[in-house]
Design brief:
By secondary structure, this protein is mainly β. The protein has 1 helix and 19 strands.
Length: 180
C-alpha cells in the first residue's frame, strides 16, 4: 500500500454514512465517515456525525490492512466524532509506527476509541470523551499512552483495558497520566 499518502484532510464535515445494502458484508463492515487506508496522511479539524455503518464501523476507521511507508508522519489533531452508532475511532491495526491523537473529541457515540490490535503504540493527548454509551477508550493493545484527557459520563467505563495488554517488559506498559 504505497499509494494514497501525503494527503491532508482539513476542516471537513461528514454526516450520516449508511453502507449500501448491495455491497455485501465487506462494504458494510468497512464503512465509516473517514476511512483511513494509509497512515502517511494528516487529519486536521474534521467532524464525523451520525455514523451508522455497521457493528465495526466508526466515525474514523483505521483499517486493519492500513499501511505506512514512514514517509510522512500520521497527524490526527482536533478531530471530532459525535452521535455515532458504533464509535469515534476504531482500529485493529497491528505494529504501526508510533503516532499521537491530539485534541480528539468523542461525544454521544457508542464508544470513544475502540482499539483491538495487540501492538499499537498510539498516544492520546488532551482529548475529551463525554457521554459515550459504552467506554471512553476500550483497548487491548500494548504501549498505549493516555495523558491530560477528560472522561465524563461514559456509560460502561472511562477506560477499559483488555487482557491482552499484559506485557512482560515495563517499557511496553499502558500509561494513564493526569486524566480526569
Amino acid at each position: 500500500k504505497i499509494g494514497n499518502l501525503g494527503n491532508v484532510f482539513s476542516h471537513n464535515l461528514g454526516v450520516r454514512i449508511i453502507p449500501p445494502v448491495s455491497g455485501g458484508f465487506d462494504s458494510f463492515w468497512k464503512s465509516s465517515v473517514f476511512w483511513m487506508g494509509h497512515l502517511d496522511n494528516a487529519f486536521l479539524g474534521n467532524v464525523a456525525v451520525g455514523e451508522d455503518s455497521g457493528s465495526t464501523g466508526a466515525g474514523y476507521l483505521i483499517d486493519e490492512e492500513t499501511g505506512s511507508a514512514n514517509i510522512y508522519p500520521f497527524i490526527f489533531v482536533a478531530n471530532e466524532a459525535h452521535s455515532g452508532m458504533h464509535g469515534g475511532i476504531r482500529s485493529w491495526i497491528n505494529g504501526p509506527p508510533p503516532f499521537d491523537l491530539v485534541g480528539f473529541l468523542s461525544w454521544r457515540n457508542t464508544g470513544g476509541i475502540n482499539w483491538g490490535a495487540y501492538d499499537a503504540p498510539f498516544k492520546v493527548h488532551q482529548s475529551k470523551f463525554i457521554e459515550n454509551i459504552g467506554n471512553g477508550i476500550s483497548i487491548t493493545s500494548v504501549r498505549t499512552h493516555v495523558q491530560d484527557s477528560l472522561f465524563q459520563d461514559n456509560g460502561d467505563h472511562g477506560f477499559f483495558i483488555g487482557g491482552y495488554v499484559k506485557w512482560t517488559s515495563p517499557d511496553r506498559a499502558v500509561q494513564l497520566i493526569r486524566n480526569t
